[in-house]
Amino acid sequence: MRPRRPDIEAAAFRIGRAIRRTPVVTLGPSETGLEASVALKLELMQHSGSFKARGALNSVLSLEPGMSRVCAASGGNHAGAVSWAAQRAGLSADVFVPSNATPAKIARIAEYGGRTHLVAGFVKDALAECRAFSTREGVPLLHPYDTVETVSGAGTVGLEIEEQAPEAQQVVVGCGGGGLYAGLAAALGGVAHVQPVEPRLCPNLADALSAGRPVATTVGGVAVDSLGAPVIGDIAFETAREHEVVPMLVDEEAILEARRFLWRRLRVLAEPGACVGLAAVLGGQVDAGPGETVVVVVSGGNNDTLPI
């Protein structure tokens, strides 16, 4: 089952004012060298430091009554968000993250009282450990990107974009497991085109579309901690096929340059995975002309190293 606009609206009502309405900063052509304006949706200012708080809270609030514990796995952002949402709801959270997760992400988890389980390897390994824990302990697993609850929560970003940048024709977003992309597409269908962008070293959606089905993908690079999902989500895959969307791919240096741009021009310290959409826009991959506005979602900021 894939969420639709009514599911996104229901999620927005459920999570309500517990979630921040993050700002949009618009850059004109003189600031970017592009013909179109670029509106940055700054989700790194969200609770837990990323858009993931939306899906995590919607998932927690959608649990059956009587639950006292939850578990989750991710590269760190979803784990921190679940820890935050669980704390808010009076639940305990066990979260599984790769041992190479950034210190900022691990600190977020501790800040919200989550119990961190470090797992050698990548997100796929953390997910495997979390699934085993969920089965063994009988604890609900809150998936990072491939359930209706998670995707619907993420899609509430799109409802805000529609109100904050109604003139936008395109929304560009980084894609790892695809939850944010799928949520935005459900929220903004018929309103704006939603364009997923992947690091060339984490081509989950591109590989799946080439194969005709979700397939395991080898991942790496500077954005692997946030966009290094082991496989594209079924919801995102079916969304891309329905909309006949092909993801754009960006190189490592383009991601790092977009991160430097945000820091130098706006003093916005985004994590690399949050910069892939902007990398595609600044690199001229997004077709937008004079008088048009492109929204770029800057999805998280849980990396406190300064760009070089």
Spatial arrangement of strands, main beta sheet: 1-2-9-6-7-8
CATH-defined fold name of the largest domain: Rossmann fold
- Mind summarizing the main beta sheet? 6 strands, mixed
Compute the CA-based radius of gyration. 18 Å
Per CATH, the architecture of the largest domain is 3-Layer(aba) Sandwich
The best one-word shape is globular
- The fraction of residues in strands falls at 15-25%
Structural class call reads alpha/beta
Total helix count? 13
Question: How does this model look, in words?
Answer:
There is one protein chain. With 308 residues, the chain is of the alpha/beta class. It is 43% helix and 16% strand. The chain has two domains: 5-50 and 147-298, Rossmann fold, CATH 3.40.50.1100; 52-137, Rossmann fold (3-Layer(aba) Sandwich). It is built from 13 helices and nine strands. β6, α8 and β7 form a beta-alpha-beta unit. The longest helix has 17 residues, at 148-164. It is globular and about 55 Å long.
How do the strands and helices of this protein lay out in sequence?
Layout: H1 5-15, E1 24-27, H2 29-32, E2 37-42, H3 52-61, E3 69-73, H4 77-89, E4 92-98, H5 103-111, E5 115-119, H6 123-137, H7 148-164, E6 170-174, H8 179-188, E7 193-199, H9 204-211, H10 224-227, H11 234-243, E8 248-250, H12 252-266, H13 276-282, E9 293-298
Parallel strand pairs: 2-9, 3-4, 4-5, 6-7, 6-9, 7-8
Antiparallel strand pairs: 1-2
